[in-house]
């Protein structure tokens, strides 16, 4: 690639089973992401490189590292130099949300990420989603985060199965349009 800007390091984290892999595959425009898709839980990490053209017309690569939900205790090893953080929460699993809140607060308090941009992705928007959305935001204390933090996470409602919010996530990641490598 000529006129290549540096790779932008992005971290994608969240509790086990929150939909990180499915979301990233949809952002990557992988085929076959629908209601029949059944991902295998991520053991370790996955890396997704996505090519974009930035606002200045230069090609850039987003290097998104997805860390499996089972590896929460090791997240700290992957924080150095991260510019953007995608935190995914499954709103259909209210039992998991309190644990997700602890994970999110831990990341927001991490000195290595003080300059990183955060986006909180509420995933798995199914028929019961609207009822649970407000409960999830209350449990995560999202409004309090926004009022108290200078670096409060942006909020995005996304569903890789229905394509809802995928373009908004791409815009957050690169403020650009996807190009073929």
Automatic annotation (TrEMBL):
GO terms of molecular function: GTP binding; GTPase activity; metal ion binding
Keyword Nucleus: no
InterPro entries attached to this UniProt entry: P-loop_NTPase, Small_GTPase_ARF/SAR
Binding positions for GTP per the UniProt entry: 14-21, 69
Family annotation (Pfam families): Arf
UniProt-annotated binding residues for Mg(2+): 21, 42
Alphabetized UniProt keyword annotations: GTP-binding, Magnesium, Metal-binding, Nucleotide-binding
Name of the molecule in the record: ADP-ribosylation factor 1
Organism encoding this protein: Papilio xuthus
Classification lineage: Eukaryota, Metazoa, Ecdysozoa, Arthropoda, Hexapoda
């Amino acid at each position: 690639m000529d006129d290549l800007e540096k790779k932008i390091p992005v971290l994608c984290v969240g509790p086990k089973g929150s939909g990180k892999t499915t979301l990233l595959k949809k952002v990557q425009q992988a085929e076959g992401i629908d209601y029949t898709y059944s991902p295998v839980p991520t053991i370790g990490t996955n890396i997704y490189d996505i090519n974009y053209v930035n606002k200045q017309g230069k090609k850039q690569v987003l290097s998104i590292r997805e860390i499996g939900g089972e590896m929460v205790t090791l997240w700290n090893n992957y924080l150095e130099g991260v510019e953007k953080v995608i935190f995914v929460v499954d709103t259909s699993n209210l039992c998991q949300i309190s644990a997700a809140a602890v994970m999110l607060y831990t990341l927001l308090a991490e000195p290595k990420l003080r300059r990183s941009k955060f986006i909180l992705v509420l995933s798995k928007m199914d028929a019961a989603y609207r009822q649970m959305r407000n409960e999830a935001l209350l449990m995560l204390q999202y409004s309090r985060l926004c009022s108290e933090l200078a670096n409060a996470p942006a909020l995005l409602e996304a569903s890789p199965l229905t394509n809802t919010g995928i373009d908004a996530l791409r815009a957050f990641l690169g403020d650009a349009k996807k190009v073929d490598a």
